[in-house]
Amino acid sequence: MTTPSVLVVENDPLLTQSLKNHCKHKGIAAQFTGKLSKALDLLEEEKFSVVVVDRMLDDGDGIDLVEYLHDISPQTRVL
User: Fold this and answer.
1) C-alpha to C-alpha distance for 19 and 23, rounded to whole angstroms
2) What is the dihedral of CA 69, 72, 77, 79, to 10 degrees?
3) In this predicted structure, what is the pLDDT of residue 1?
4) Helix, strand, or coil here: 39?
5) What is the value of pTM for the model shown?
């Protein structure tokens, strides 16, 4: 069984650190960004099993990212 790769798009530093700690403790391969634009770049480079998206980002609306994900990668689970 392969470990799912996770992208976390969250701009709150405390929540991001908590999620980093949790992923590390559970052995989950995760990448983190607080920017919608960086998330779009990462999604062009890599396929993720799960994407965790904050609704209100500094450079855009997380819902736009969710809609984009549904178009390009419908099998990706989005939280």
Assistant:
1) 6
2) 0
3) 47
4) helix
5) 0.91
Tell the residue number behind the tokens 């609704």, with chain if given: 55
Task: Categorize the per-residue pLDDT at 2 as very low, low, confident or very high, splitting at 50, 70 and 90.
Answer: low
Residues with Cβ within 8 Å of residue 44, at least 6 apart in sequence = none
The pLDDT assigned to 3 comes to 63
pLDDT average, residue stretch 56-69 = 94
Helix, strand, coil content of the chain in percent (nearest 5): 45, 25, 30
Phi, psi of 76 (to 5 degrees): -75, 130
Element (H, E) at 63: helix 62-72
Report helix, strand or coil for 26. Answer: helix
